[in-house]
Protein backbone atom coordinates (compact mmCIF):
# COMPACT_ATOMS: atom_id res chain seq x y z
CA UNK A 1 0.00 0.00 0.00
CA UNK A 2 2.78 2.44 0.86
CA UNK A 3 4.79 1.90 -2.31
CA UNK A 4 1.96 2.84 -4.72
CA UNK A 5 1.19 5.91 -2.63
CA UNK A 6 4.85 6.94 -2.65
CA UNK A 7 5.02 6.36 -6.43
CA UNK A 8 2.05 8.67 -6.94
CA UNK A 9 3.66 11.37 -4.78
CA UNK A 10 6.93 11.11 -6.73
CA UNK A 11 5.11 11.24 -10.08
CA UNK A 12 3.24 14.34 -8.85
CA UNK A 13 6.58 16.05 -8.19
CA UNK A 14 6.70 15.71 -4.41
CA UNK A 15 9.99 15.33 -2.58
CA UNK A 16 9.78 11.80 -1.11
CA UNK A 17 12.12 10.17 1.39
CA UNK A 18 11.74 6.46 2.14
CA UNK A 19 12.88 3.83 4.61
CA UNK A 20 12.11 0.13 5.01
CA UNK A 21 13.54 -2.57 7.27
CA UNK A 22 14.54 -4.29 4.00
CA UNK A 23 16.29 -1.59 1.96
CA UNK A 24 15.89 -3.45 -1.33
CA UNK A 25 12.13 -2.90 -1.07
CA UNK A 26 12.87 0.82 -1.53
CA UNK A 27 14.93 0.35 -4.69
CA UNK A 28 12.08 0.93 -7.16
CA UNK A 29 11.14 4.16 -5.36
CA UNK A 30 14.77 5.29 -5.23
CA UNK A 31 14.99 4.62 -8.98
CA UNK A 32 11.99 6.91 -9.46
CA UNK A 33 13.71 9.68 -7.51
CA UNK A 34 12.96 9.07 -3.85
CA UNK A 35 15.66 9.75 -1.30
CA UNK A 36 16.60 6.98 1.14
CA UNK A 37 17.42 7.34 4.83
CA UNK A 38 18.86 4.45 6.86
CA UNK A 39 16.48 4.84 9.83
CA UNK A 40 12.98 6.06 10.64
CA UNK A 41 14.53 8.67 12.94
CA UNK A 42 16.52 10.12 10.04
CA UNK A 43 13.42 10.22 7.84
CA UNK A 44 11.44 12.03 10.53
CA UNK A 45 14.21 14.54 11.19
CA UNK A 46 14.57 15.37 7.50
CA UNK A 47 10.88 15.69 6.59
CA UNK A 48 8.07 18.08 7.50
CA UNK A 49 5.37 15.42 6.96
CA UNK A 50 5.64 11.65 7.39
CA UNK A 51 3.41 8.69 6.57
CA UNK A 52 3.86 5.23 8.04
CA UNK A 53 2.51 2.07 6.43
CA UNK A 54 2.94 -0.85 8.80
CA UNK A 55 1.73 -4.44 8.78
CA UNK A 56 1.07 -4.51 12.53
CA UNK A 57 1.89 -2.60 15.73
CA UNK A 58 5.03 -4.67 16.31
CA UNK A 59 6.45 -3.28 13.07
CA UNK A 60 6.57 0.18 14.64
CA UNK A 61 9.26 -0.93 17.08
CA UNK A 62 12.60 -0.77 15.35
UniProtKB/TrEMBL annotation:
GO cellular component assignments: chloroplast
GO molecular function, one term: NADP binding
Regions crossing the membrane: none
Domain (6-phosphogluconate dehydrogenase NADP-binding) ranges: 1-59
Pfam families from the UniProt entry: NAD_binding_2
Protein name listed in UniProt: 6-phosphogluconate dehydrogenase NADP-binding domain-containing protein
Provenance organism: Rubroshorea leprosula
